[in-house]
Amino acid sequence: MTDHVPFILVVDDDPAILDSLRFLFEDEGYRVQTSEKGEYAESLRDENGGLPDLIVLDVLLSGKDGRTICRKLKSQDVTRHIPIVMISAHPDAEHSVKEVGADAFVAKPFAIDEVLATVEALLSSHSSR
Amino acid sequence: MSVDTTADALPLAGFQEHPASLEPVSPVPILDAIELLADGYYEMDTEFRYCRINPVGLRIAGKTADEILGKHVLEVFPDIAESAIHQATVQVMETREAASVETYYPPHHRWYVNSIYPVTGGIAVFSHDITERKLLAHNLAFLAEASKILSSSLDYQHTLRTVAQLAVPRIADWCAVDMRTGPRTVELLAIAHVDPEKTRWAEELRQRDPVDLERPVGLAKVLLTGQPEFYPEITDALLVATAKDERTLELARSLGFSSAMIVPLVAHETTIGAITFVAAESGRHYAAADLRMAEELASRAALAIQNSRLYGASQQAVAVRDDFISAASHELRTPVTSLKIYTQVLQRQAERRGDEHTGGQLRKMQAQIDRLAVLIGDLLDVSKIEAGKLELRHELIDLRRLTDEVVEAIQATTTKHQIVVEGTVSRPVVGDGERLGQVLTNLLTNAVKYSPQADRIGVRLVETAGRAIVEVEDFGIGIEPEHLDQIFDRFYRVTSEDEKTFPGLGMGLYISHEIVRRHGGMMEVTSVKGSGTVFRVTLPYGDGMAPDRSEGIQ
User: Fold this and answer.
1) Which segments of B21-178 does DSSP mark as H helices, in order?
2) What is the average pLDDT score of chain B?
3) What is the pLDDT averaged over residues B65-85?
4) Which residue in chain A has the smallest CA separation from B345?
């Protein structure tokens, strides 16, 4: 690992989930950006080093399906490399998120150890490429 | 209908029991009696010529005395040579032994028993009208069959259509079922006629010309008053009186209605509809007994409708509840998720700075959040099972390893009990490892919970030729025999004095039982009150089955 502080984008329509995940990731030393809207994630551009190193994405956003966003991010060159962890209160969503190219799935409510281990593993495998 | 269409069938009746009464004591009183008899009576000579007939006999024959007396029977009724009544007459003439034959006389829709006696110089015949008895039996048979249909299904629309079909032509030429759908609206639920062409025509007619509840005649009157309408004889005057306009009058005339009855369908003291029976081309006339039958049928039909509606309402209530449970469990997950994250991070921070006291409290808090999460998960599982949406993975599972993992996790939650695992199963079973783990977790959690005084819990793995078995045994409070049958039912909770200290929602065993069942397995329980309980899970092996990433073991 370099000195680079990994940057995580969290997308979830529930403000308390966003806040608690920010609390978790910042406590772990990551840089965190949160968004309640899927559009933000969809319109990611590589400007001023603005691309996240990893995205935590909720499956069911208000009025938007996180899987659609995941599919789009994984289909465009600029964002394809970013690992995506999808989260959901529907444990059965695991199969469908793998189909849209998500790198991992964690069911809500989760043990933070599981989330952190997943995030860490993805960050290290992606940064070592 | 097996009928003898003997047009003459000049039946005789009544006196079969006392044939000796034919012995004339004095010719004059007998003669008078025969003239006044309610039964038809006639005599024939050995040449089959009518030599005597009473007024009722003439009415049944539809002839005058001049047309009959002195004439050969086949001259008067040329078509009856092959009929049962004629054959019987010939037989009595030859054998000189009395006989009795039942006949149906279509022009009048009446049944008769004809008693034929040999008399000096020929035969004598009494024709006794048994139509009422026949109709009663006929109606009862129809009622029995219709009732069977009504109770055969909770789909009352379907059963009422079937009953209407059954009614024609046995009871009516037309049969219709109408339901009130609102204060001013009536829906024709079913209409039946032997000719489907006419059925369609009537349906179209009713669409063009709906029942007008503002005009309280006929069907509308029945629907408004809840009282039956009975028209033993439909006269032209009646048609004129009830027709809405010239056009409907013409139509009614052209259909040739002869008799009708309309009976209300009453449920909870409300008239919810009516059944209409109309006789037309058959020329039949309904009698009081027919009306009683129709009313009986209507009351049974109304009961069936009521049951069906209650069932529908209860099903809907169940669906609303299940939807609510499903929505609620999803909604509850979100705050539990963030709550759990905050607590875990706080706990880590406390541990990092060496604050053991706060860390310990936060750990307890987490245990409670986890308990909440399990309950919410159970609620969600129950709603999934009910909706048939419980998805199962299809993978090969090492039962011993799975058991060890679960035992280790549960062992960590109890210091009082020692969980001892015996035996092993080397062949893999097929299914959803996470779900089977949930079953074992549930059984072990229960074992701990319901054996507070014990220090040991036994887990036994047995590999039989056909199936793998896992048993979880506790030495706790046990279960009363009367609860054992229902222990796997949804929301079932054992309620007894000593169980009040063991609260629960009755979901865990139901979910576990369903999971095992959907794996093609079996879950059983044996228990002795006061000494302990054994839950036994039997699962099929998965050797030779390709694991499959997809869901849905049925």
Assistant:
1) 27-36, 55-61, 65-68, 73-76, 84-95, 131-150, 156-167
2) 85
3) 91
4) A24
